């Protein structure tokens, strides 16, 4: 049974947790068929490894439990992400 859904748009990656306490809602009972943020379809699989989506949160960021792939939008700078460092010396 699906526990999480993720938006398929790499620039969005909204996540829906289908767990309601100890119960898991069925996907067919969800009122929204597409992401309310961007209108893209939902997926119940990790966009990085294609395994059924299970999520862990570390420092306010979401990751796939199987492959540790980040589930943030492309280009997002969430908590815990290091800034790019230039090695060019002038």
Average pLDDT works out at 77
Q: What class, by secondary structure content?
A: mainly beta
Question: Count of DSSP E strands?
Answer: 7
Q: Over all CA atoms, what is the radius of gyration?
A: 15 Å
Q: Estimate the strand proportion.
A: 15-25%
- Low-pLDDT ranges: 79-90
Query: With helices defined by DSSP (H or I, 4 residues minimum), what is the helix count?
Result: 0
End-to-end separation in angstroms reads 56 Å
Shape: globular
Major sheet summary line:
3 strands, antiparallel
The order of strands across the largest sheet is 2-1-5
What is the chain-wise order of helices and strands?
Answer: EEEEEEE
Please bin the fraction of helical residues.
under 10%
Layout of strands and helices, then pairs:
Blueprint: E1 4-7, E2 15-17, E3 19-20, E4 23-24, E5 42-43, E6 55-58, E7 61-64
Antiparallel strand pairs: 1-2, 1-5, 3-4, 6-7
Question: What does this protein look like?
Answer:
This protein has 90 residues and is an all-beta fold. It has strands at residues 4-7, 15-17, 19-20, 23-24, 42-43, 55-58, 61-64. The chain is globular and about 25 Å long.
Could you give a short description of this structure?
The protein contains no helices and seven strands. It has 90 residues and is mainly β.
Write out key terms for the chains shown:
two-stranded antiparallel sheet, single chain, mainly beta, 0% helix, 3-stranded antiparallel sheet, 23% strand, 90 residues, disordered C terminus
């Amino acid at each position: 049974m699906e526990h999480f859904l993720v938006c398929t748009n790499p620039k969005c990656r909204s996540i829906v947790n289908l767990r309601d306490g100890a119960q898991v809602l069925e996907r067919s009972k969800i009122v929204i068929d597409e992401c309310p943020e961007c209108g893209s379809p939902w997926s119940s699989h990790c966009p990085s490894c294609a395994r059924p989506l299970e999520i862990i949160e570390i420092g306010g960021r979401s990751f796939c439990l199987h492959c540790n792939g980040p589930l943030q939008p492309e280009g997002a700078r969430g908590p815990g992400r290091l800034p790019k460092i230039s090695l060019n010396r002038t």
